[in-house]
Amino acid sequence: MNKQILVTGGTGFIGSHTVVELQNNGYDVVIVDNLSNSKVEVLDQIKEITGIRPKFEQFDLTDKQKVKEFFKKYSDIEAIIHFAASKAVGESVGKPLMYYNNNLSSLMNIMESMIDCEVSNLVFSSSCTVYGQPDKLPVTEQTPRKEAESPYGNTKVICEDIIRDTIKAYPSLKGIALRYFNPIGAHATAKIGELPLGVPNNLIPFLTQTVAGIRPELSVFGDDYNTEDGSAVRDYIHVVDLAKAHVVAIERLLTGKNKRNCEYFNIGTGNGVSVLEIIKSFERATGEKVPHKIVARRAGDIEKIYADTSFANEELGWKAQSTLDETLLSAWKWQLRIAKM
Ligand code: UFG
């Protein structure tokens, strides 16, 4: 029988791509999502890609009773990938309690049920935001975490600590926190991708909407950073490469290859890329022009971050495969597809 994996937030951007990769690797998936930031039609799209419609339960993971009932109903879950969370940095500044309540209580409810129902394996979606602006680049998993810049970022730090402390107290539990750098792009079929609500905050959806004529021009936030061309530097990773990292993390836990009960991995490409380089790469890959202007820095932005991925490369046997041009082309194909939706 196939192993059953619970994917919380499985209709979301990273979640849906991960469900596809899990199903392609022979896992049975059950998704829990409250659809607060995603659409139920994603299930049909996943079926179009993989031939299998994942099981789906719609409820809010902050509801402890519902979480308990879920684990009673699905008693053969072997591992959990926990994506479900609120993720807008700016919004979290105005609504800290909503962010702490949502992101912390859903994790705690899941971990309580893991203990009660003897589910041992957890993969958690963490973020490079836990490093803040690091003193030294690239960042390794040993780079000290810094005080978070936003309540959202702080929920990632606290969730990592909740997992660490709970695993310490219950040694039958095992966890892997994947610290994502900047996930972008979309599935090669253009059937799933990122669906931002309203005006996008993130660079790539804003850029593709600009090229599609939905926004007049892209604002490049700052050209006076201490970087080669003055614009800020990030490590942009194709969402399918990121999704594949979850499959190897699950396999590591299920086969007992983990070296510690609680492990952390940087999931990026290892390449630092500036905003202006993103524009150039997009134009090269798609043949489209990106209307843009330089404006002031965005409050709260860091100057530069990129990953040292050698630990993930060696320990997980995983490495990002896609080039930046391929990744940006996939984002553009997705934008063209959603224009028709
Ligand atoms: N940027 C622009 N113009 C825009 C949008 C973004 O120039 O319209 C720039 C930003 O200033 C930044 C870069 O593009 O330099 C990337 O910005 P994003 O908003 O796409 O991503 P961030 O690096 O700010 O944030 C991402 C995730 C967060 C996570 C953070 C961790 O979206 O969830 O990485 O560092 F917390």
Automatic annotation (TrEMBL):
Domain of life according to the entry: Bacteria
Gene3D superfamilies assigned: NAD(P)-binding Rossmann-like Domain, UDP-galactose 4-epimerase, domain 1
EC number: 5.1.3.2
CDD domains (UniProt xref): UDP_G4E_1_SDR_e (cd05247)
Pfam families with a match to the protein in the record: GDP_Man_Dehyd (PF16363)
Reaction equations catalysed: UDP-alpha-D-glucose = UDP-alpha-D-galactose
Pathway: Carbohydrate metabolism; galactose metabolism
Keyword tags: Carbohydrate metabolism, Isomerase, NAD
Names of the cofactor(s): NAD(+)
Broadest EC class assigned to this enzyme: isomerase
A Gene Ontology BP annotation from the UniProt entry: galactose metabolic process
Gene Ontology molecular function: UDP-glucose 4-epimerase activity
Coiled-coil ranges (or none): none
Residues in NAD(P)-binding domain copies: 6-327
Example of a GO cellular component annotation carried by this entry: cytosol
Quaternary structure and partners: Homodimer.
NCBIfam families (alphabetical): galE
Family: Belongs to the NAD(P)-dependent epimerase/dehydratase family.
Protein name: UDP-glucose 4-epimerase
Organism encoding this protein: Labilibaculum filiforme
